Amino acid sequence: MEPISRRDALGLGATGLVLSGLVRRSPAASPPTGRTDDDGSRRPFLTPGDDFTDVSRGDPIPHTLQGEALVKARLTPETWRLEVAAEGKAELAKPLRQADGSAIDLASLVKLGETKGVLFLKAMQCNNIAQPLGQGLWEGVPLRDVLRLGGEMKQVRRVYYWGFHNNDPKQMFRSSLAINQVLDAPPGELPPFIAYRLNGGPIPLERGGPVRMIVPWAHGFKSVKWLQQIVLTNDYQANDTYALANNDPESYLKTAAYLDDADEATRPAGETLVIRGTAMVGWPGLARVESWLRRVSRPVVELHDDDPAWATASWRPCDLDPPPVDLAAELPAGVDLARIWGFGPDGRPKEWPLRFSVAPWSASLGGLEPGDYEFRVRTVDRNGFAQPEPRPFAQRSGVNGVQCKRLHITAKA
Ligand SMILES: Nc1nc2c(c(=O)[nH]1)N[C@H]1C(S)=C(S)[C@@H](COP(=O)(O)O)O[C@H]1N2
Ligand SMILES: [Mo]
Rounded to whole angstroms, how far apart are CA atoms 280 and 131? Predict the structure, then answer.
């Protein structure tokens, strides 16, 4: 069965819901899993580029431009250019500029990719939306290799970058990285990328194509779409658009579990109930997903974060889905699996689940007596921290509150 696109399912139309110039479709109704659901529908392991939940600012939103406007915006594969320059005390020997024809074009970027390109799986996750927006197989050139095209750098402490924004400074969507994060990724870690391919094809305009930044370990706001400008600076401070509104501009991906369906469910006793969801595997990795089933009485009172019940809760392991049996069939045709970051020479992932991707899980509940229950689910990361720890606050640095589903079990029919 063909999965319905989220856009159709929500009936929001092509441009989605406009909230003060910000498109924010509802969080992904059916996150990618690569499995067949109980109703027989297939959920792909990779989200088609046009089916991601879209988080895009702009008036008009850059991906709604067409024809001549798109050409003027330099957002077609032929017209796209990337400028790299330095400001203030920072220096770059050979700035790459549109004016003198030295700006990077798509063909040169793809050419550079022939030797420097990296393939990696990554789910896009907004800082402030529970549930990944979609999962892709991205291809890009490390940002450090693009910066090298400009020759020697001096006095650089930070890299600022932004995308097309209707030539209106107020609409700029900016982000930034410390220079060491760009040049010096920790061993075995992915660096920030200038990405030009998604799921084996061009990056669709809606996903920020032709070229966007992808910062694998970070929340979505570091992965600027319609990327066109990079400025090296001596400034040491983050100037991210997401530094505003009290967001944590250095937040990195947290590990957290989400329910596919958090709505209250009514079921007859005697039935085995299977609850499903996905976990976002953040930088700290995923050790396990576990659930807590709590008997409650009516009227059900909200459980507060400081309730003593948390301390005596009994958490039981949930089942993590194994990698899809035919992983190659889930990926674009012709992809050499051994080239994907985290995969071995045999084309199988070296560890599972992979960091920065989505891990589907399920929990089977049998033999429930009639009554009311609350089902909660949490991840435990590879540092041993159970969600939402280690941070005592669950907002503005990556939403990761523990989700809850209420169950009403009726007497046997
Ligand atoms: N140019 C630009 N890039 C952007 C944004 C934006 O509004 N404009 N939104 C950011 C945010 S907050 C998120 S969560 C991701 C969402 O990526 P997606 O639309 O591909 O799902 O894009 C990021 N890159
Ligand atoms: Mo976001």
Answer: 7
Q: What is the pLDDT of residues 23-81, one digit of tens each?
A: 444 444 567 778 777 777 778 899 999 999 999 999 999 999 999 999 999 999 999 99
Domains plus CATH for the chain? 6-30+254-332+342-410 (2.60.40.650), 49-245 (3.90.420.10)
- Cα 371 versus chain centre, distance: 38
Ligand 1 in reach of 6 Cβ (< 6 A)? no
Taking alpha carbons only, the member of 24, 276, 9 closest to residue 126 is 24
Burial of 263 (0-12, 13-18, 19+ CB in 10 A): exposed
Of residues 281, 222, 253, the one with CA closest to residue 398: 253
Residue having the nearest C-alpha atom to atom 23 of ligand 1? 221
The contacts of residue 122 (CB under 8 Å, 6+ apart) are 135, 136, 138, 214, 216, 356, 357
Which positions ≥6 away from 167 have C-beta within 8 Å? none
Any atom of ligand 1 within 6 Å of the Cβ of 52: yes
**Token pair for 142:** 């490390």
Task: State which ligand 1 atom lies nearest to the alpha carbon of 226.
Answer: 1
Contact 129 CB / ligand 1 (< 6 Å)? no
**Prediction pTM value:** 0.92
